[in-house]
Design goal:
The structure is a single chain. The protein is an alpha/beta fold. The protein has one domain: NAD(P)-binding Rossmann-like Domain (Rossmann fold), CATH 3.40.50.720. 46% of the residues lie in helices and 15% in strands. It has eight helices and seven strands, in the order E-H-E-H-E-H-E-H-E-H-E-H-H-H-E. It starts with 8 loop residues before the first strand and ends in a 7-residue tail after the last strand.
Length: 253
């Protein structure tokens, strides 16, 4: 797919680490100009420095749970490069541990605000711009927990199921207006989030790689990035409304 997004503009929320960073770099390698959006400036600027070794990018700080902030980031992207062709709505948090207190109201509101409402706000701004220019491609980060459940992870599971539903509904609404909307559903990926919530050397991590993820290892952020770039590329021109597991076989069981 080398150069498949040459001259395009891509925006990545949560681009300061993990899957977001890997995808921002993948977009740049495919020739896209990349807007990195993240709440944490240190991570976003680190990603930007990495992109500058490959191509062109900018960093915009924003909290996706605040409509005015993500709206500003999208507007700044368009002011910089004139258009928005690809958007990867990836910003998210794991929230409190599933076993801690699944009925924690503060955790519920925070996880839903960032992981679901943040995608809703981001898509609203992106769709508005893409309609003006005649089309585009959007990919949202759901999860295998947007397809199945685990005990106690109420907020995270509800949010990721919500992203899957939002993706399908938007895909149907804009299918004839040049905008494709899809979601990726990562399994257990070697990211800072998984490191915080599971631990890479823990008994839980060993259980995941031996029993939950049939491929026998954690995934790499770059493997999710490749799926996202493909979904945004002309090669996926007939693909819209899917929730694609990229999970080493987890949900096939």
């Amino acid at each position: 797919m080398a150069g498949s997004l040459e001259g395009k503009t891509a925006l990545v929320t949560g681009g300061g680490s993990g899957i977001g960073r890997a995808t921002a770099l993948a977009f740049a390698r495919e020739g896209a100009r990349v807007a990195i959006v993240d709440y944490v400036p240190e991570g976003g600027k680190q990603t930007l420095n990495m992109i500058k070794e490959i191509g062109e990018g900018q960093f915009f700080q924003a909290d996706v749970s605040k409509a005015e902030e993500i709206s500003r980031a999208v507007r700044q992207t368009v002011e910089s490069w004139g258009r928005l062709d690809c958007a990867f709505n990836n910003a998210g948090i794991e929230g409190a541990g599933a076993r801690d207190n699944p009925w924690d109201h503060e955790n519920w509101h925070r996880v839903i605000a960032i992981n679901l409402t943040g995608v809703f706000f981001s898509m609203q701004c992106e769709v508005e711009q893409m309609l003006k220019q005649g089309g585009g491609a959007i990919v949202n980060t759901s999860s295998i927990l947007g397809l199945v459940g685990i005990p106690g992870a109420f907020a995270y599971t509800a949010a990721k199921h919500g992203v899957a539903g939002l993706t399908k509904s938007a895909a149907l609404m804009y299918a004839q207006r040049g905008i494709r909307v899809n979601a990726v559903c990562p399994g257990y990926i070697h990211t800072p989030m998984v490191e915080r919530s599971v631990g890479l050397e823990s008994e839980m991590a060993q259980h995941i790689t031996r029993h939950l993820q049939p491929i026998g290892r954690l995934g790499r952020p770059e493997e999710i990035a490749e799926a996202v770039v493909w979904l945004c590329s002309p090669a996926a021109s007939l693909v819209t409304g899917i929730t694609m597991p990229v999970d080493g076989g987890c949900v096939a069981q």
